[in-house]
Amino acid sequence: MAEVLGWEYRPPIVARSDRERVLSSWAPYCRNVVPLEYQVEFSKVRYLTPRQFVERLSTDLRIKGVVAGENYRFGYKASGDAAELVKLCEEFGLSAFIVRSVMDTAKRSYNGATPPVNSTDKGQVSSSRVRHALSVGDMEYVSKLLGRKHRLVLTVNECCLQEREKIVFPKSCMLNMPPADGFYENCGLVNGGYLGLCRVTINSETIDIELEDKNSLTSNLFREDQQLGIEFG
């Protein structure tokens, strides 16, 4: 969507390769079924009216129902709202469930003030709120907003360095949004399985990972194109 509209690129909060793991955590709320994800090209639906969009969902994707937040907008120039979605779904024989916003009960303040995230911010949990918390490095707050620890995914390539007691990744290896530059303790390193506790230093150019158990630093960590994840405590 950003590419089509010419917006500035922003790394995703969840790496594309990590979305299946996150979706699998929803299974207990979906009758123990892991949801599948389908990508619809924005360029192909960008100019659809709200009616045409719901019709596309019904006839092309053959869905049975939709779930959307109360602030959901859809259709060309966001001309449709949640109420119209319910009306159109009923017309096309689809179920529609509108979910109320989850409000941020923590309401973190910085320097005595709680800054608004954007012009539509009413205190609800949102991706903008998560991004703001990441940008100031408040990982406890990020975990509360997400309902899980934030995982930064890195791809191993020839630019990565494995030193005696640490691993150094250039920031170009990141697949999603990192927290602010700084020092982070009590992190976890994963690569499909749990590798152990680590300390992480993020600066303007690199991400330095120091494992508490030095024996965990094996050559198997450094297979090219392998991915490593840092979970921030």
From TrEMBL:
Record keyword Flavoprotein present:
yes
Q: Name one GO molecular function term.
A: ATP binding
Pathway entry: Cofactor biosynthesis; FAD biosynthesis; FAD from FMN: step 1/1
Matching InterPro entries? FAD_synthase, Rossmann-like_a/b/a_fold
What is this enzyme's EC? Answer: 2.7.7.2
Q: Which SUPFAM superfamilies match?
A: Nucleotidylyl transferase
Query: Boundaries of each FAD synthetase domain copy?
Result: 36-105
The record's keywords, sorted A to Z, are: ATP-binding, FAD, Flavoprotein, FMN, Nucleotide-binding, Nucleotidyltransferase, Transferase
Q: Name one GO biological process term.
A: riboflavin biosynthetic process
The UniProt entry, under Pfam families, shows: FAD_syn
Q: What is this protein called?
A: FAD synthase
